[in-house]
From TrEMBL:
<dbReference type="Pfam" id="PF00795">
    <property type="entry name" value="CN_hydrolase"/>
</dbReference>
<protein>
    <recommendedName>
        <fullName>omega-amidase</fullName>
        <ecNumber>3.5.1.3</ecNumber>
    </recommendedName>
</protein>
<dbReference type="GO" id="GO:0006107">
    <property type="term" value="P:oxaloacetate metabolic process"/>
</dbReference>
<dbReference type="GO" id="GO:0006541">
    <property type="term" value="P:glutamine metabolic process"/>
</dbReference>
<dbReference type="InterPro" id="IPR036526">
    <property type="entry name" value="C-N_Hydrolase_sf"/>
</dbReference>
<dbReference type="GO" id="GO:0005739">
    <property type="term" value="C:mitochondrion"/>
</dbReference>
<feature type="domain" description="CN hydrolase">
    <location>
        <begin position="4"/>
        <end position="249"/>
    </location>
</feature>
<dbReference type="InterPro" id="IPR045254">
    <property type="entry name" value="Nit1/2_C-N_Hydrolase"/>
</dbReference>
<dbReference type="InterPro" id="IPR003010">
    <property type="entry name" value="C-N_Hydrolase"/>
</dbReference>
<dbReference type="GO" id="GO:0050152">
    <property type="term" value="F:omega-amidase activity"/>
</dbReference>
<dbReference type="GO" id="GO:0006528">
    <property type="term" value="P:asparagine metabolic process"/>
</dbReference>
<keyword id="KW-0378">Hydrolase</keyword>
Length: 276
């Protein structure tokens, strides 16, 4: 496999969980019709992005209705499906979780947001995920052929150590279902995506909900894919949009030869290690 067709599915929220799932599935079908093998949904795609709402929408993963619907469509279409994120309940705890389903509908892995979105920019954006959610405690990867992919969620992309750990584990791509807000979005969104891609010589996909100014939390939009050179290969606008892009996997090996920074890390001077 030298190229992989990827779909970034930027979605509007809908009034109910069932309508959100139905909207996602209709876009997943269109992505498959356009040849996508890997399909990625945004952060919190089946519920409002609100600490007050997470509990009401939470479900067990993979037993809950959202996971069951995603597993079924992944198996029917034979695609790799990164299920964005949705609130997960385990016992009394809630997590912001990204499940990945394989072409047989099997749960390949699930990743729970490691760094919770606690931001306070008065008059612009205040959010405290840690008031409702528990942070995850491990990394998660899956593979499509020889391509190893690491997962992060939104705020996680602000932590360069996380992407560097995935690099160390051999990942040539990272996927971040995300939901930046319209204040940090224009300042940081592209920059963080491109920086993680360039530092780690990997593809980086950022997938956002569409922008809806009527919701309590307004997402930025502008889903994008960066290549290992830090270039933006494709970018959505603010509305619901299905972005399809072919990534050239040869680029990962070539750039490591041409700009050999990964081989030049000075393990005798500094160290970075994934613990879990
Ligand atoms: N939604 C997030 O987790 C993060 C975010 O909006 C930001 O980093 O800005």
């Amino acid at each position: 496999m030298s190229t992989l067709r990827v779909a970034l599915v930027q979605l509007y929220g809908r009034p109910t969980k069932q309508e959100c799932i139905a909207n996602a599935i209709s876009q997943i079908r269109q992505a498959k019709d356009r040849g996508a093998r890997l399909i990625i949904l945004p952060e919190c795609f089946n519920s409002p992005y609100s600490t007050a709402e997470f509990g009401r929408h939470a479900e067990e993963i993979p037993r809950g209705e959202t996971s069951q619907a995603l597993a079924k469509v992944a198996a029917e279409l034979g695609v790799y499906l990164v299920g964005g994120t949705y609130p997960e309940r385990e016992g009394t705890r809630l997590y912001n979780t990204c499940p990945v389903f394989g072409p047989k509908g099997e749960l390949l892995c699930k990743y729970r947001k490691l760094h919770l979105f606690d931001m306070d920019i008065p008059g612009r954006c205040t959010f405290q995920e840690s008031a409702a959610l528990t942070a995850g405690d491990r990394l998660a990867t899956f593979s499509i052929g020889s391509l190893k992919i690491g997962l992060g969620i939104c705020w996680d992309k602000r932590f360069p150590e996380l992407a560097a750990c995935y690099r160390q584990l051999g990942c040539d791509m990272m996927i971040f279902p995300s939901a930046f807000d319209p204040y940090t979005g224009p300042l940081h969104w592209d920059l963080l995506g491109r920086a993680r891609a360039l530092d780690n010589q990997m593809f980086v996909a950022l997938v956002s909900p569409a922008r809806d100014p009527t919701t309590e939390y307004v997402a930025y939009g502008y889903s994008l894919m960066c290549d290992p050179w830090g270039r933006v290969l494709c970018r959505a606008k603010e509305e619901q949009e299905l972005l399809i892009t072919d990534i050239d996997l040869k680029m990962c090996g070539e750039i490591k030869q041409q700009i050999p920074i990964l081989r030049q890390k000075r393990g005798d001077i500094y160290e970075l290690k994934a613990m879990k």
